[in-house]
Amino acid sequence: MSELAFDRQWRLDELLDAAALERIGPALAELFGGEVGILDAEGGLLWGHAPDAAERRLPLILELEAIGYLASGTAAQPALHGGRELLIAILRAQVRYKMAATLHVEAVAEDYESLQRSHARLLESEARYRKLAGELEIRVKSQLLELEERQQMLYQAEKLASVGQLAAGMAHEINNPLGFIGSNLSTFKSYLEKFAALKGRLAHAENAWRELDLDFILADGFDLLTDSASGIERIARLVADLKSFSNVDRASEEYADLNTCLQHVASVMSSQLPPTIKLSLELGPLPKLVCLPGHLNQLFFNVMRNAVQAIQDAGRPGEVRVSSGRVDGGIEIRIADDGKGMSREQREHAFEPFFTTRGVGAGAGLGLSTARNIVLAHSGRIDIASTAGVGTTVRLFFPTAQ
To answer: Strand locations in 66-137, DSSP E?
Structure first.
């Protein structure tokens, strides 16, 4: 194991970042009923206000040496001691979390080294086979290289496929409000021309007003402007949904509400649904999750798209039902459809790359494989329950911090 993670002396600012201090500091201030300060090992102030008296500071000790101090000029001594013990418990939990993260990384590295050793043994076997196979081995190697290139192309095509579908759907949805906005403005221009014509007929204003039907023009002009403003708001909403789906303005990792992710993906998907398929959401309150929102958007999009395709392949109207809720230890999301379903054999191969239940050329077979990789990257689980001719339910579980 890494000495860096298990035998080192942690610094207070490593265990409590700015966000954690902004959560813990005010709570301690309220607990102490006034002034509170959190200091590092050298006495530097990390949060709050520190009293000058040294006896109002209590050391925060995890192993042998103090990594910081908790100070208060107003708290009673028992309350200050209790607050110190609470803060130490939080710090120890942070240390355990960081140690577990390091252990996970090292386990992955060890698995990778094991794979490298296995790969080395395979290379030795390949060398022996090459001696026996001669020219045949050269042809096989050439074919394998070509297959790898095509696989990489398919992976890239899968990544771009959803973007292309989104672009097509968004273009169609944006063209609708643009069309009636253009028509409204053209009509409104003709209305203004009639008002201009009225200028030369002011001597006969009342008759000219009736002949030009300006009462209708005024009323309809206001309606045209209202419709145009509504269309502009619709375009802005579509662009916002697409921007949120693509995750262009977010950090690589952050606290996110998975219900918000599901709503954005559903908004994007709704523009691509045929009239015979309905998409419904039943979302319960969820705690925020530390995650990669862009990756989860891709995950939800892949699973919902598979559900829509399953209903289309069944050749009948159907519904995609998305639900979310809290369960023991984390968050559960279910995406169910009443499409054609899968047999037992198909379920066993569902997560294999390039496996698809659709016809030749109708799918690359990478949607569920990519979805599983994203779920595993978030330490979650993905399960499939499916019955041929009835439908499929995909269950996603994401653990939350205890």
So the answer is: 66-71
**pTM to 2 decimal places:** 0.44
H or E stretch at 266: helix 258-270
pLDDT at position 319: 94
Sign of the dihedral defined by the CA atoms of residues 258, 260, 261, 267, in that order: positive
Amino acid found at 292 = L
Nearest to 261 by CA among 296, 307, 289, 290: 296
- The C-alpha atoms of residue 103 and residue 378 are separated, in whole angstroms, by 16
Q: Percentage of the chain with pLDDT > 90?
A: 13
**pLDDT tens sequence across 239-298:** 665 555 555 444 467 888 999 989 988 887 887 788 899 999 999 999 999 888 878 888
What the block records as the tokens of 368 is 């569920």
Which residues have CB under 8 Å from 311's CB, separation 6+? 276, 277, 317, 318, 319, 320, 337, 338, 339, 340
Query: Rounded to an integer, what distance in angstroms lies between the CA atom of residue 392 and that of residue 7?
Result: 49
Compute how many other C-beta atoms are within 10 angstroms of the C-beta atom of residue 385: 14
In sequence order, the 6+-apart residues with CB closer than 8 A to the CB of 197 are 208, 212
In whole angstroms, give the CA distance from residue 101 to residue 261.
26
Confidence grade of residue 175 (pLDDT, cut at 50, 70, 90): low
Kindly report the backbone phi and psi dihedral angles of residue 220, in degrees, each rounded to the nearest multiple of 5, phi listed first: -70, -30
Tokens of 164: 């292309």
- φ and ψ of 280, to 5 deg: -125, 145
Mean pLDDT of 211-225: 73
b/e map of 303-333 (b: 16 or more CB within 10 Å)?
bbbbbbbbbbbbeeebbbbbbbeeeeebbbb
Predicted local confidence at residue 277, as pLDDT: 92
